[in-house]
Amino acid sequence: MKKLAIFDLDGTLLNTIEDLGYAANHALQAHGYPTHSIASYPFFVGNGVRRLIERVLPEDARTEATIDRLLITFKEYYNDHNTDYTKPYEGIPELLSLLSSRGVAIAVASNKYQAATEKLISHFFPTLSFIAVEGQKEGVPVKPDPSIVFEILAKAKTPKADTIYIGDSGVDMETARRACVDSVGVTWGFRPEKELVENHADTIVNSPGDIAKLIFSND
């Protein structure tokens, strides 16, 4: 049985795509740039909000100064609206409660900036105790750099062999590989299953219940 389950946030625990898309479109429109359909946003996200803003801008507008301006507008809007449409994926609250009740530590490793990560976890999972909730922080590289996973492992004092990392993207699978922990790719998130396969997911699951079976498989 695994003793620590580290979860990605966006596309794994929570479907955040509409709120991210509306916030990015708000920033684009406010600064006079064309917007995108919400359906296109799953392929813009995954490496933090700065990369999101860079990707949604026209190529000839992707200067550091322009990204900085839009990022401020994005965060002002997103901070007030990041729970408008966001919701947990079906079965996720039950999975997290089951893991906690059976002694498996749970943690979050996200490329979303720290304040928003903490807000969303406390809003949607207020009764659960996470060993760590780690988002993007100044001076700490974003995933797939494994630094954020190493921070969680240090807090949890759990060996890598007893740890599992769950995410929905190639970035997540690469993060787990670099951290030398087992990876689980989920098919309900923002990225296609093909991306999980191409990035060498150790296991691919189709439901939160499958994660529970995997974690408790050696009981």
SS field, number of helical segments:
9
Question: In one word, what is the shape?
Answer: globular
What do we call the CATH homologous superfamily of the largest domain? HAD superfamily/HAD-like
SS-based class: alpha/beta
Percent of residues in β-strands: 15-25%
Q: Do you know the CATH topology of the largest domain?
A: Rossmann fold
Spatial strand arrangement across the major sheet: 5-4-1-6-7-8
CATH architecture of the largest domain: 3-Layer(aba) Sandwich
Distance between the termini: 6 Å
Please identify the top-level CATH class of the largest domain: Alpha Beta
Low-confidence runs (pLDDT<50, min 5 residues)?
none
Order of helices and strands: EEHHHEHEHEHEHEHEH
Radius of gyration: 17 Å
Domain tally: 2
Range of helix content: 40-55%
Mean model confidence by pLDDT: 96
Largest sheet: 6 strands, parallel
Give your account of this protein's structure.
- This protein has 219 residues and is an alpha/beta fold.
- The chain folds into two domains: 4-15 and 86-215, Rossmann fold (3-Layer(aba) Sandwich), CATH 3.40.50.1000; 17-81.
- The chain is 43% helix and 16% strand.
- The chain is built from nine helices and eight strands.
- It has helices at residues 17-30, 49-56, 64-81, 92-101, 114-124, 147-156, 170-179, 193-198, 208-215, and strands at 4-7, 14-15, 87-88, 105-113, 132-136, 163-167, 182-186, 203-205.
- Strand 6, helix 7 (170-179) and strand 7 form a beta-alpha-beta unit.
- Helix 2 crosses helix 3.
- It is globular.
